[in-house]
């Protein structure tokens, strides 16, 4: 008997995939939603050792890029049928610091038709914590979560799903093994140097972490899993990692002297080759943070990303909370910011109607948050507010924002006034350059029009239109009555015309309209 299948039922829409491009290992996780819960149906990981291919100038070697692309080709076989909204790809430390990451991202885009997000260390720590906390039975207890990756170590403290502190340090099992154990040999001197270097890195953050009085410590990902498995192989089966037990591993490695003499079936050969660096970092963490014991958890970054994709707590909700928190912290004039946001929305919607094309869904939200936060640097100095605001946003931990989203937010705020300079507009992989330039111009106009902080300026008194042949050529129509009553706006707009002309022959045309109703049609 053959059961007929309705062709309208596409199971792919119920599947979600996350790819974690780690510095040492790439992970693919596929799950499906069943009765409002997640059911993992496929997992695959491959040792790529991307961080191993970083030069002294932080450039990825062609060999490491080739290994990474081969892995993505393999992953693509499983997920290439999934719609874009069901896939999220995040990249961590190695691609964060790689000077030629754009070369890799361009090649990867030809294999996978999905955007790759490079996330900050703090955002990585937050998502790792969420992946652990979402599957933990310790709901009300304060937890410290640790993840030692290939190029960085992430730490987060929280209660339930609420994160209290996140931190990322540029020390990982691959980078530390290369720095201190390049010959894959271990002795007391090189191990002591590695551990003390890690302790020095942790000295600044450790008082803040300890002040939160965490009750439990949870370790995740492959490095800590390796120590967990080694201890089980040695007969310690309760799953608890302590400092004394790590010392047992240290003395065992010391007796082996080299990686080639480690006789263990509990960990792979690729993991053995970076184990010394990982152990030095973990022992430094135990000493500095005064950790009594640690439990291993199999859930990690990819689980946090997946959880956030499915649950009602959307990325926009998290970013909105981040933006509002910053606006409160820096005493932003919310009434003025709302007027700028309303004008930005008015112009954005006009652009959207005229362009008749698909936009990156993050563009609109990032424009509004830039409008909300453009005065965040006002307390420092008004004269260079665009620079001070950009500096604060560039150096702040922004939960929910990936690296390029944060960079675009910084770019919009940095260029909201004064001269437009090419060197201030970075290259993006997730966002179209032309779209970025239009957002900058929309924000500049919205801020300039509301510069006098008038309370009676109706957005409908301003109409923006873009040339079909060159969207960077903009016409701004202004209601004649409004223009007559606001000569300062006209004066500022004429200066704005000069700024636009200085940037790649940009053009802003002004039109005083006696019949705005006809224009709005």
Automatic annotation (TrEMBL):
Residue ranges annotated for the Ppx/GppA phosphatase C-terminal domain, each copy included: 318-497
User: One Pfam family of this protein, by short name?
Assistant: Ppx-GppA
Q: Does the record's keyword annotation contain RNA-binding?
A: no
What are the recorded GO MF terms, alphabetically?
A: exopolyphosphatase activity
Q: Which UniProt keywords apply?
A: Hydrolase
- What domain of life? Bacteria
Q: Which residues form the Ppx/GppA phosphatase N-terminal domain?
A: 29-311
Any one biological process term the GO annotation gives: polyphosphate catabolic process
Q: What is this protein called?
A: Exopolyphosphatase
């Amino acid at each position: 008997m053959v059961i007929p299948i309705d062709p309208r039922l596409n199971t792919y829409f119920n599947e979600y995939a996350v790819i974690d491009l780690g510095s040492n290992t790439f992970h693919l996780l596929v799950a499906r939603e069943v009765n409002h819960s997640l059911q993992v149906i496929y997992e695959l990981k491959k040792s790529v050792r991307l961080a191993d291919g970083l030069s002294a100038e932080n450039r990825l070697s062609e060999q490491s890029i080739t290994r990474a692309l081969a892995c993505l080709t393999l992953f693509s076989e499983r997920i290439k049928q999934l719609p874009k909204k069901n896939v999220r790809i995040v990249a961590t430390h190695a691609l964060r610091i790689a000077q030629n990451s754009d070369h890799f991202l361009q090649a990867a885009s030809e294999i996978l038709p999905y955007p790759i997000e490079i996330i900050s260390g703090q955002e990585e720590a937050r998502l790792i914590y969420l992946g652990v906390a979402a599957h933990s039975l310790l709901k009300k207890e304060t937890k410290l979560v640790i993840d030692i990756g290939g190029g960085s170590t992430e730490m987060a403290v929280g209660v339930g799903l609420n994160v209290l502190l996140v931190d990322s340090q540029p020390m990982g099992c691959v980078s530390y093994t290369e720095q201190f154990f390049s010959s894959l040999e271990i002795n007391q001197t090189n191990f002591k140097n590695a551990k003390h270097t890690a302790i020095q890195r942790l000295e600044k953050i450790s008082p803040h972490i300890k002040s939160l009085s965490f009750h439990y410590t949870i370790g995740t990902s492959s490095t800590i899993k390796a120590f967990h498995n080694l201890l089980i192989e040695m007969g310690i089966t309760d799953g608890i990692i302590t400092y004394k037990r790590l010392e047992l591993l240290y003395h065992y490695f010391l007796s082996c002297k080299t990686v080639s003499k480690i006789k263990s079936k509990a960990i792979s050969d690729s993991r053995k080759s970076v184990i010394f660096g990982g152990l030095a970092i973990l022992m430094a963490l135990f000493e500095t943070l005064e950790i009594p014991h640690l439990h291993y958890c199999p859930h990690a970054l990819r689980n946090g990303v997946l959880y956030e994709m499915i649950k009602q707590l959307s990325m926009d909700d998290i970013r909105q909370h981040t933006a509002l928190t910053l606006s409160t912290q820096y005493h932003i004039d919310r009434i003025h910011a709302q007027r700028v946001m309303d004008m930005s929305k008015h112009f954005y919607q006009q652009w959207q109607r005229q362009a008749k094309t698909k936009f990156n869904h993050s563009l609109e939200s990032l424009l509004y948050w830039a409008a909300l936060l453009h005065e965040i640097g006002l307390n420092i100095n008004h004269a260079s507010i665009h620079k001070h605001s950009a500096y604060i946003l560039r150096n702040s931990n922004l939960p929910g924002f990936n690296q390029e989203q944060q960079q675009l937010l910084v770019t919009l705020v940095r260029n909201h006034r004064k001269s437009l300079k090419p060197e201030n507009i970075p290259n993006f992989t997730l966002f179209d350059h032309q779209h970025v330039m239009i957002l900058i111009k929309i924000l500049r106009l919205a801020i300039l029009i509301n510069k006098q902080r008038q309370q009676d300026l109706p957005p409908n008194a301003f109409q923006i239109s873009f040339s079909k042949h060159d969207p960077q050529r903009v016409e701004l129509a202004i209601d004649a009555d409004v223009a007559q009553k606001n000569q300062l706006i006209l004066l500022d707009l004429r200066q704005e015309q000069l700024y636009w002309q200085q940037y790649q022959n940009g053009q802003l045309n002004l039109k005083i309209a006696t019949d705005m109703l006809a224009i709005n049609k």
